[in-house]
Amino acid sequence: MLYKNHKKTAILLLSTLSISIQAAHAGSSFSSSGQVNYTINNITNQNNPGSTDGLEIAALFDLDANQSYSSSSGDGSFTITPDQLNSVSLSPSAGSNFIQTFQVYGDVNNGTVETYQLALIDLNLANNSSSDIYDIEISLSYDLSSETLGDSGQSGVSIDYYTDNDATSDFTGSELIETFSEPLSLNNASLNSTDTLNFILSPGSTHAIFSEIVIDGSLTAVPIPTAFWLFGSALAALPALRKNQAIRKNIPGSAV
Questions:
Q1: 3-state per-residue secondary structure call for the chain
Q2: What percent of the chain is modeled with pLDDT above 70?
Q3: pLDDT (tens digit, 9 = 90+) per residue, 74-106?
Q4: Beta pairing partners, 214
Q5: Which of 43, 57, 191, 252 might form a disulfide with 90, Cβ 3.0–4.6 angstroms?
C-alpha cells in the first residue's frame, strides 16, 4: 500500500510539474503610452479687457501615416489607440484644456511584432481681431509610461515639443524612456513633466504648439516544444522514484 501511494505521488509530480512549466511560458507583450495636456492658464486682452471674441483655439490629434509602420508574424498582434483624427475647439478662457492619450499595445505567443508609431498632438491659436492684443499663458504637461513582459521584448516612448514662432523658440523639449524584458520578468518606466509658455498674440496673427509622441516596440516569442518540458519533468521526478524503490525494498513480502 505504501509503495502504491508513493507511485501515485511520483505520477502526480510528473504531470503537475509539466503543466506548471508550460504555463510559465507566457509569450511577450508591451504596453506603452504618452499623454499630453494643454491647459490655458491665462488670457488677457490688453485693449478690451474681458473680451475674447476674436480668439479661436483648436486642438488636434492625428497619426502620421507616412512615418509609421507595423508588421507581425505568427500570432503576433498590436493595438493602436486612438487610430483616427480627433479635432476639438476649446473655449478661449482660463481653465480650458485638452487632454489626449496615445497608446500602443503588442502581444505575441509564437511569432514577432514590430511597430513604430508617430502621433501629432497640436494646439493652434488664431487672433481674428483687427485691434485686440492677447497676452496668453499656456502649460504643457506630459506623462510617458512603458512596460514589457516576457521572453524578448523592447518598447520606447518619446516626446518632442516646440512652437512655430521665432519669439518663443526657446519653448522646446525632448524626453525618452525605454524598457527591455528578460525571460519571465517585468520591466516598466514612467516620466512626467510640465512646461509653461507665455506669448503675445497680436491682431491677425496665429500661434501653434506642436507635440510629437513616438511609440515603438518589438517582440519575439518562440514556444519550447512540449517534449522538452516532459523530458525535464521526468528528470526532476527521478529522485522521488528512486526513493520509492528504496522504500519498496524494505517492505516485507514485496518483489524487487
A1: CHHHHHHHHHHHHHHHHHHHHHHHCCCEEEEEEEEEEEEEEEEEECCCCCCCCCEEEEEEEEECHHHCEEEEEECCEEEEECCCCEEEEECCCCCCEEEEEEEEEEEECCEEEEEEEEEEEEEEEEECCCCCCEEEEEEEEEEEEEEEEECEEEEEEEEEEEECCHHHCCCCEEEEEEEECCCCEEEEEEEEEEEEEEEEECCCCEEEEEEEEEEEEEEEECCCCHHHHHHHHHHHHHHHHHHHHHHHHCCCCCCC
A2: 75
A3: 999 999 999 999 999 999 999 999 999 999 999
A4: 118, 158
A5: 57
Q: Which amino acid is at 158?
A: S
Helix axes 2-24, 226-249, angle to 10 degrees: 160
- Please, what is the average pLDDT of the chain? 85
Q: Give the C-alpha distances (Å, rounded to integers) separating 51 from 95, 127, 133, 207.
A: 16, 12, 10, 19
Asked if residue 201 has pLDDT above 60, the reply is yes
* CA–CA distance, 212 with 27 (Å, rounded to integer): 31
